[in-house]
Each structure stands twice: as C-alpha cells, then as structure tokens.
Amino acid sequence: MPLSRPLRAAALAAPALLFALLLAAAEAAVRAALPPLSGVEVLVRDPAQRAGFGDRRAVSIFEADPVRLWRLRPGLRDVIWDFTPVSTDGDGLRTFGAPAPPGGTSMRILALGDSVTFGYRVPVVWPERPNQFDREARPWPALVEQALREANPGRAIEVRSLAVPGYTSHQGRLWLEREMDRARPALVVALYGWNDQNLRPVPDADSMPAGGPVVWARGLALRSQALLRLAAWSRGDGGAATAPHWRVSAPEFAANHRAMAALAAARGARFVAIAPVFGDAVALPGDAPRMQALREALRGAAREAAFPLLEVPELTEAAHPDNRWLFGETIHPSHLGHRLLAQRLLDLLAREAALPGLAIPTPSAPSVTMSP
Length: 372
What we know:
Blueprint: H1 5-33, H2 39-43, H3 47-51, E1 62-65, E2 69-72, E3 79-81, E4 84-86, E5 106-113, H4 115-118, H5 140-151, E6 156-163, H6 169-183, E7 187-191, E8 199-200, H7 204-207, H8 213-221, H9 225-235, E9 245-246, H10 250-266, E10 270-274, H11 288-305, E11 309-310, H12 335-351
Parallel strand pairs: 5-6, 5-7, 7-10, 10-11
Antiparallel strand pairs: 1-2, 3-4, 8-9
C-alpha cells in the first residue's frame, strides 16, 4: 500500500533527523568531558605558524576564520599582545583614536597588509606598565588617516586597517574579494611580503582555497566542538612535508596584486601597492633573495596592470646598517619607519591625484631620516 505524502516526507526526513540527534548528543558529550578546542589550533596545521599566535604570556588576539584561517578577535580593548597594545572594532580591525565624524562626504581607504601594516610593537608597551607608552607612535594607516582628517576638516575620512599578523597577499586578496562591495573604498593600499616568502609545508593556495565545499565545511566545524575534535583527529600531525614551499611564490605574489588592482578598478577605486620592507640581509641572509624576488615580481605587475608602486629604499636591506633606527628589529619598522611610510605614501597620493576632492598634505618639515 503506497505511503501517504506526510508519511513519505517523514520517511525521507528520518535519516537527517537521526544524524542531527546523534550530532547533538556527541556535541553535548564532548563539551561536558573535554576542554574547549580552539578553531585556530585545528585550521592552522603548521606548528610554526601556530606558534606565532601566542606571546610569552600566552595572550592571543586571534580567532578562526573559515576562509583566511585566522583573523583578529573583535571587541578587544587595550589587550597587550607581544608588547603591542591592541584594540579592535566589531569587525576585528585594529583601531586608534576616534571614529570618522558623522555627516559630510565620506571617504574610505582600505589598508591591506600583515604585521607591518598592523603595527607590530607600534607603540611598544611593557605589560608591567600598560599605560606608559608613546601615544603618538602609530602604524602608517593611522598616521595617514590623521593627516588627511587634519587637512580636510569636516570630511568623514576613514582608513580601515585590514591587516593581520602572519597574512600573505593570498589572504589579502581573499579578504578584499569579500570586503570590497561592503566597504566601497575610494582607495586600496596593499603591503605584503615577509609572510609570502616564508617556507611552509603547504602553499597558501592549497591550504586556503578560495571557496566551495572546503570553506563551507570549515564554517560548519567552527560551530561544533565535536566536529573540531573530529577534524583534529583526522588531520594527523599536520607537519609532514616532502619539501618546504613558499607560502606564496613570486609569480603568485604578482598575480594577487594584479587581481586586487583589477577588483579595485572594477569598483571605481584606485589601487596602490607598497613594495616589501625588510631591514637586514645580514641577520637573515636566506630571506633576502626571496624578498628581492618579490619586489621584482611586484614591479612587473605594476607595469603590466598600470598601478602605482611605492618603494621606500630606506626600508630595505640595501640601506642597512644606516636604517637601523627605522626598524624595531629586522622585519618590522619602528614608529619612525611607520612615519616615513606615511610620509612617502602621502607624497605618492598627491603626485598621482589618487584622492580627487581631498587636500593631501605633504610634509612641510624634512622627512624622517635614518638617524635618531
């Protein structure tokens, strides 16, 4: 005897319902018996990469992201991470000072990057003295925002720092693809390099596919401790590799910047790239040739795609050792290095007329030099 329509629907729904009940039971059992498992620990398989998330006091400012694997946690307030004071907004972007004033004609700039643009140890703050630091020491996006607001009173100008320590141009491209329509910027500025040439077991293009079932599965797993435990068990040690790979090769580095430039142009925005910074080939001689290869690839991309490229020779290994005051250590510029980056970028934006309708200040005083 044929089943009625309600019975057929119930029969078809039974397996899914049973699976949901079993998953709910497993979830309850895992949460009751085991401590919470961080999604970052599961999604980021490389131990060297995971080691950079926590500082010596076991403070972490990161959470898992199904597309980019990790991101800054939203809503942080004056958290001291690795000698860096970090506050973030509801979108997980590092913030400084007051938001853009309401009203007027808005102008938004996106600053894409890694720990350099994020402002690692800018300013430097000691955990034992959390309120004693130089409040004028800021990363270059905050300095550019401040300069543009002062030169254009009444305008709602915002420089949003889409920068996360450890990011490559691959992650930046993925982020921009999802943020561009929501942010609607007038200008996009990108600065990557150090992490792109890092050697890892798996290239970023393989560990972070742009979309599809893998991203959907990650998003589902991040909502379930049971699925995270299953994923951690099934992945093994995650560290085996036949040979190390660049996280992003030089040709891929160029292609990522061309893609970001094309996306900006398609939305009516300008695009500017900043060449990778690197302070000292003596301390890290193996990395210097790879950083140089990335710069050369980026020059080719800028010529091919016709976007402005800012190179700051003082912030490269060619200026060592005279540039030591511009770096906190080999990789990251000091607050003086960030001031120099902001000055040079403002100069380029003025030359290129990259922000029509805005007054772009150029330094009236001598630029930052390589002496303290």
